[in-house]
Specification:
The complex is a heterodimer. In chain A, 40% of the residues lie in helices and 20% in strands. Chain A has 16 helices and 17 strands. Chain B is an alpha+beta fold. In chain B, strands 2-3 form a two-stranded antiparallel sheet. In chain B, α1 packs across α2. Chain B starts with a helix and ends in a 5-residue tail after the last strand. The chains are: A alpha+beta, B alpha+beta. Chains A and B meet through β2, α2, β10 and β17 of A and α1, β1 and β3 of B. β10 of chain A pairs antiparallel with β3 of chain B, so a sheet runs across the interface.
């Protein structure tokens, strides 16, 4: 029998706030264990949570960017369960009345566009962190660090609209790109700022009844998401083919083996006994607030991608590379504002700039060749002061010294030679010492032309204007 | 709604409470009586009435996103039954 996979994703997006969602403790990553805690996030008796306004603002941003309706009224609820990383014995989340409802994202897989529904986005607090090893003297016990407890999260719940691991990855990448563009999440998957749980089931092709699903946790890279989902689909199909039944359970992805395994001790049906948190008043969001946020949204990647193609006339490939991150697109546009020719700027940003960043490991925001310097360089090429080839030398020099291109050209004597007299002199010498090749050319072997160009360029140390060289050479050889 | 012994055992398990035979029997009767009392509310017609999320008619209590000093590791761990190296120490948690 043929099977069809059905996948829904729950993504946890850690928000880039200064302080936690319900208290003033810092959210900075990597601090000493339990150094960023207070009575609220420790769950001490009598401590009361107060909502961080920035979290609401970010949630509205995320909701609008993913085509949601913003609920005029939403409510925080307690999700009750016991676990050592959850000091209060409940997590403050949203249940019946989340802040964003009915959104969607459009993805493209192998040239086919598809709309993926998003059921909801809600705000909640993160739990603490359990550390099992690497602590001297702890023996077989576990350690709890509550720095992460009460860190603000958005949970983005998709509809079960995804049908393959590739679609799931495309959706995730798109969502990741958007939250990073919005400046609400640093997107660091290794540090857990963007985490994904996948609900996976299979059904016979043509069926409209979903199979029993398994929830896979702990997939913290795009590669692992693909691996985990593909493995889980295979596992479920084999199980059914062998006459078995998929059980509804939580499974943990193991990156070392690329497999998923059942999480023991979690079989007990979840019964979270949600109820409205009496410590927090309802959240009311006015239309004006939503409009203010809408106006403050940056241009989103999908819109930029379209604009680069239609308005700037760039090929799809260029537009996609340049809009991959907001910072890269901002760099490109900053340079374009000073030197308004899209294709050359695109070529330089995708070529030399990207190569330099890769070699040095620097982020685009720390690029030593600023958009201003790059624009000046391109203007020097346009003015015929330097050739494209020399420009690459100047670029490397700018990268090292941060000096202006005109200064480098002056200091290193790199000005392009367009003076015909000077170039003619070089050509005459080359022709005189290579009589054999001259005869070949005149005998009809026009390929040797490239040899002469190369010789002249070398003799001029790359400074001869290639157009002038071509012109003069042709005249001399044919004449 | 009739509260059964199984309901009481389920709720006790979720709350990590261990009940004796006697307690379970007592609570079954008591919880059933409490719910029967509250049951009276079902006589009211509540169609079209928004569920109450909060008893105080208030909304939007915010704080600004400003980080404030924490209480320090020693204060945080002051009431911990067991600690090691700045961590709360708990019995092994198996995943």
């Amino acid at each position: 029998m043929k099977y069809q996979a059905v996948i829904g994703l729950e993504v946890h997006v850690q928000l880039l706030t200064n302080s936690k969602i319900f208290c003033g403790c810092s959210t900075k990553f990597g601090a000493a264990p339990n150094s960023q805690t207070c009575p609220v996030c420790l769950g001490l008796p009598g401590a009361l949570p107060v909502l961080n306004k920035q979290v609401v603002e970010y949630a509205i941003r995320a909701g609008l960017a993913t085509n949601h309706s913003i609920a005029p009224r939403s409510v925080f609820a307690r999700k009750n369960y016991f676990y050592p990383d959850l000091p209060k014995g409940y997590q403050i989340s949203q249940y019946e009345l989340p802040i964003c409802i009915n959104g969607h994202l459009d993805i493209e897989v192998e040239g086919e566009a598809k709309r993926i529904g998003i059921t909801r986005i809600h705000m909640e607090e993160d739990a603490g962190k359990l550390v099992h090893a690497d602590v001297p003297g702890v023996g077989d016990d576990s350690c709890v660090d509550l720095n992460r407890a009460c860190t603000p999260l958005l949970e983005v719940v998709s509809e079960p609209d995804l049908r393959s691991a590739d679609e799931a990855v495309a959706y995730l990448k798109k969502l990741h790109q958007i939250v990073v563009y919005l400046g609400i999440c640093d997107g660091n998957m290794e540090e857990g700022s963007f985490r994904c749980d996948a609900n996976v089931s299979v059904m016979p092709v043509g069926s409209d009844t979903f199979g029993t699903r398994a929830e896979i946790k702990n997939v913290n890279s795009f590669k692992f998401v693909k691996q985990a989902i593909e493995y889980e689909i295979e596992r479920q199909i084999e199980l059914i083919e062998d006459g078995g039944k998929v059980v509804q359970e939580t499974r943990l992805f193991d990156p070392n083996s690329g497999t998923t395994r059942s999480m023991r001790g979690k079989e007990e049906a979840h019964d979270y006994r949600y109820f409205p948190d009496p410590d927090l008043v309802p959240l009311v969001i006015s239309d004006d607030w939503v409009e203010d946020v809408r106006l403050s949204l940056p241009e989103l990647p999908a819109s930029r991608l379209a604009r680069y193609q239609t308005e700037l006339g760039l090929p799809f490939y260029d537009a996609e590379v340049l809009t991959a991150t907001r910072e890269l697109a901002d760099y490109f546009e900053a340079c374009l504002a000073l030197y308004p020719q899209a294709k050359p700027v695109a070529n330089w940003v995708m070529g030399e700039v990207t190569r330099g960043l890769n070699d040095s490991g620097l982020a685009i925001t720390a690029c030593p060749v600023t958009p201003e310097l790059l624009a000046e360089l391109l203007k020097l090429i346009d003015a015929g002061t330097i050739s494209n080839k020399i420009a690459k030398t100047v670029f490397d020099e700018m990268w090292q010294s941060g000096k202006a291109p005109a200064v480098i050209v002056e200091e290193k004597g790199l000005v392009q030679v367009s003076d015909t007299g000077e170039i003619e002199k070089i050509i005459d010498e080359i022709l005189a010492t290579n009589q054999g090749q001259v005869d070949e050319f005149r005998g009809g072997k026009e390929k040797v032309f490239g040899f002469f160009v190369g010789q002249v360029m070398r003799a001029s140390k790359g400074k001869a204007n290639p157009a002038v060289v071509n012109d003069l050479l042709l005249k001399k050889l044919k004449g | 709604m009739k509260i059964t012994r199984a309901d009481v055992e389920h709720v006790a398990k979720l709350a990590r409470l261990e009940l004796t035979e006697e307690e379970a029997a007592t609570f079954t009767g008591q919880m059933d009586a409490i719910l029967a009392y509250v049951e009276k509310l079902n006589e009211l017609d509540t169609a079209g009435i928004v569920p109450t999320a909060h008893a105080v008619p208030m909304e939007n209590a915010f704080r600004e996103d400003v980080a404030t000093p924490s209480i320090g590791i020693d204060n945080a761990l002051a009431n911990a039954p067991s600690r090691v190296d700045g961590f709360f120490r708990v019995p092994k948690v198996i995943e």
